[in-house]
Design a protein that fits this description.
transmembrane helix; disordered N terminus; single chain; 54% helix; iron; membrane; alpha+beta; three-stranded antiparallel sheet; oxidoreductase; five-stranded mixed sheet
């Protein structure tokens, strides 16, 4: 009896030890962390940190606690958070069969399932090639004059006769008008005015809990998105008819360019739904990211007279070479080397888009941990942008960091460490358009104006992109013509 009881006890102990060891082994393969509250997970605390402009602190605390890879729950989805140079390289170089494009549910439902950030494999390659055919440097060279015209109209309407302006909303107006011209081919008028109001609503709920109830930001953004897409569908119909009648050029704008791409059987390479969804995300990328960069640059030039003077000198030399009324050219932009280094350093310190998302299509191992199939993976660009081992004295503004890179020589900046425009096959196809807008606008600002900040509060928060609390009001003074 006693031996029987002892045997049972031993078997129980062995079974318990086996379960403990296998359980521990299984858990050890998952990254450390917690899933937070049911359903909402860590979403509210991250969004709160972003809106207080403390999300980097929030993430650094998490890294101190769990290390560079941890698990959490964001936007209703089990999530792995990664940080560091190895993580960036891992995320940008994995093939589309193991790690697929994925945005939070709120972004995916607002932007659509057929945009370049959601597509994988051959579909991603096909759509990317179609977009790049319009947005590559060789194609964009012919549109520099159009961007110049939009900037001239904008300055005449909003800056030239003013002594006080609020920068951020004006930069959004400018970049939206450029988008309407180059992406949609929409002239100034009622349709543009409707789109800009709807677009403001769209952006309010881009990064939110996907609860589709009438009082939520997500619901409001989703409704605005549907109206924008209805306008774009009607626009595609009009442009297809115009192309059929040869009344517009296939190079008129992005939509006509995409409609004109055909395969060997004279079939459309990209569907109407893909055109709508990708025009939508390019509108977001070209509008908000560039306007934010320009606003930060205006603030910098008000704060730092030495950088203003250096940029003004470079731009004045270009202005002297132009005839009265002559547009900037691609060659002029190529000579704005110092100005672009300043912009790159600003993007390092304040990247407009800091979070990127993917989803695992199969079980993946990284850093000794298991990332389960179907989980969301998120990482933050500023983690490497502010890494002292990569960028010494990372909180100091030093444009010379990008001096070698700007001249296409070897650089001491490691690949995948500066990812303001993404990297590899996931590099933003609209980065050259952003460069054109930024350089052309800064050219006209510094050759025509001096300015100073109008209030002490020039702070900002993220929602999810940077938003200046006061919109950045400045006093401007018109210079005498050169």
């Amino acid at each position: 009896m006693e031996s029987s009881s002892l045997l049972i006890v031993i078997l129980i102990l062995i079974s318990s030890l086996f379960l403990f060891l296998t359980k521990g082994s299984s858990k050890k393969r998952l990254p450390p962390g917690s899933m937070g509250f049911p359903i909402i997970g860590h979403t509210p605390t991250l969004l709160e940190a972003m809106r207080a402009n403390k999300d980097e602190e929030w993430l650094n605390e998490r890294i101190k606690k769990y290390g560079p890879i941890s698990r959490m729950s964001l936007f209703g989805t089990p999530t792995i958070f990664l940080s560091g140079l190895a993580a960036n390289k891992f995320m940008y170089t994995r093939d589309g069969n193991t790690l697929g494009s994925h945005q939070p549910t709120s972004i995916r439902r607002i932007c659509g399932e057929k945009n370049i950030f959601e597509l994988t494999g051959d579909d991603h390659k096909r759509v990317r090639e179609a977009l790049v055919s319009f947005l590559k440097p060789d194609a964009l060279k012919q549109y520099v004059g159009k961007v110049d015209e939009e900037i001239q109209l904008h300055l005449n309407q909003f800056w030239n006769d003013q002594s006080n302006v609020v920068v951020m909303p004006l930069m959004k107006t400018l970049t939206f008008n450029v988008v309407c011209t180059l992406i949609f081919g929409i002239e100034p008028g009622v349709r543009r005015d409707i789109l800009v109001r709807l677009f403001e609503k769209v952006m309010e709920g881009m990064l939110s809990l996907p609860i589709n109830l009438p009082f939520t930001r997500f619901h409001s953004s989703l409704q605005a998105s549907k109206k924008v897409k209805a306008i774009l569908i009607e626009l595609i119909k009009e442009k297809r008819e115009a192309l059929g009648k040869n009344s517009i050029s296939s190079h008129n704008d992005l939509i006509t360019a995409l409609l004109s791409i055909r395969d060997g059987q004279n079939q459309s390479v990209i569907s109407d739904e893909e055109i709508v969804d990708n025009a939508f995300v390019i509108m977001i990328g070209a509008h908000d990211t560039t306007s934010i960069l320009l606003t930060f640059l205006v603030r910098l030039l008000a704060r730092d007279p030495s950088i203003y003077t250096a940029i003004a000198h470079e731009q004045n030399e270009i202005a002297k070479s132009k005839k009265l009324g002559e547009h900037l050219t691609w060659e002029d932009l190529s000579n704005m080397k110092f100005t672009w280094r300043v912009a790159m350093e600003m993007l390092r310190m304040h990247p407009p888009m800091t979070y990127s998302f993917r989803r695992t299509l199969k079980e993946i191992e990284f850093g000794g941990f298991l990332i389960p199939k179907g989980w969301q993976v998120v990482w933050n660009a500023s983690m490497t942008h502010k890494d002292e081992a990569i960028f010494p004295d990372p909180l100091k503004f030093m444009p010379r960091r990008f001096e070698q890179q700007a001249t296409n020589n070897s650089t001491n900046i490691p690949p995948y460490s500066f990812v303001a425009f993404g990297a590899g096959a996931r590099r933003c196809p609209g980065n050259e358009l952003a460069r054109i807008e930024t350089l052309a606008m800064i050219h006209y600002l510094v050759t025509r104006f001096r300015w100073q900040l109008s209030c002490e509060d020039d702070s900002f928060y993220r929602d999810p992109m940077p938003v200046f609390n006061r919109g950045l009001p400045i006093q401007i003074h018109r210079k005498q013509p050169l």
